[in-house]
Amino acid sequence: MTTRPDDHVVAAMALRDLARCARLEIELFTEDGPWSESALRSELAAPHNRYVVVHGDDGEVLGYAGIGLLGSGEGAESEIHTIGVAPAAQRRGIGAALLRELLRYADEHGGPVFLEVRTGNDAAIELYRRAGFEVVGTRKNYYQPSGADAFTMRRAAAGTETTA
Ligand SMILES: CC(C)(COP(=O)(O)OP(=O)(O)OC[C@H]1O[C@@H](n2cnc3c(N)ncnc32)[C@H](O)[C@@H]1OP(=O)(O)O)[C@@H](O)C(=O)NCCC(=O)NCCS
């Protein structure tokens, strides 16, 4: 059974969500420098960031994501900082719903959106491609401590052509 992205309620991340998100960071990004609860708290507090979550029926966080605005004014660029979905809740449209909300936030400012993703992370790359991102570069040895490479991906500003 699949659940369409529209069925997931995406809410602003709250302080009470942080402990669970930090546990998911460890589970999902063990080798790639998972963020601690205090690092996530700083991300949440930063003025030009937007962090969102999807909760399960029991109130537990199933997925979370964050984006930051770089600079200010019309056409300011944005950068996706993280997106993660609990393994047991993956492939139910939660990642797509979270990403859609991040892009809605970015589109309020009208600029392109960038992100880094592990070169072998086919699930995330496919998620991003379907949302209009394309690979524009490779960053060697980007993740630590793993030393894994990252693709830089870019989504053109809403309403404009891609560069490829
Ligand atoms: C990447 C991630 C966030 C996707 O979340 P998700 O809730 O499972 O994704 P969705 O169910 O919304 O999938 C949306 C689309 O993404 C693509 N996708 C998702 N998982 C995929 C997989 N394992 N293999 C191939 N494509 C996949 C598909 O196109 C999918 O659409 P479909 O189910 O209609 O085919 C999740 O796999 C995850 O948390 N991975 C570990 C953390 C991570 O790598 N985060 C990204 C860091 S850059």
Automatic annotation (TrEMBL):
Keywords, ordered alphabetically: Acyltransferase, Transferase
Domain N-acetyltransferase: 1-158
Source organism superkingdom: Bacteria
Record keyword Transferase present: yes
GO function terms (MF aspect): N-acetyltransferase activity
PANTHER family: AMINOALKYLPHOSPHONATE N-ACETYLTRANSFERASE-RELATED, AMINOALKYLPHOSPHONATE N-ACETYLTRANSFERASE-RELATED-RELATED
Name the record gives this protein: Acetyltransferase
